[in-house]
Amino acid sequence: MSDHTVAPVVPTPALEPPYYAVVFASVRTDRDPDGYTGSARRLSGLVRRIPGFLGEDFAHTPGGLAISVAYFGDLAGIEEWRRDPEHLAAKERGRERWYERYVIHIARVEHSHGFTRT
């Protein structure tokens, strides 16, 4: 959901485990692309306000697969995000218009490390 046209593309840094990753993989329809973009930007801003939110990464392939990974410090943050009224409304619009299919995986991260070229 991040807009990488303004900022450099940088993955979320390695975090101190344990924490949780919510992986949202989707294939979109061609319907309502403008409504989708605005909603995705709005949700990306809203999720940052959830206690325990740690960051997010987003990528998509030329073939249409999009993957968004949101990181949370605990399951309570994930549950709060799941119940957010705007998020719930966007999920409903997504099922009605924007997605051919999607899957959500929630995983506990036990190990995290990174590399940055100097």
UniProtKB/TrEMBL annotation:
Organism field: Streptomyces griseochromogenes
One GO MF term: monooxygenase activity
Keyword Acetylation (UniProt): no
PANTHER family: ABM DOMAIN-CONTAINING PROTEIN (PTHR37811:SF2), BLL5343 PROTEIN (PTHR37811)
Entry protein name: Antibiotic biosynthesis monooxygenase
Database matches in InterPro entries: Dimeric_a/b-barrel (IPR011008), Jasmonate_Hydroxylase-like (IPR052936)
This protein's UniProt keywords: Monooxygenase, Oxidoreductase
Domain of life, per lineage: Bacteria
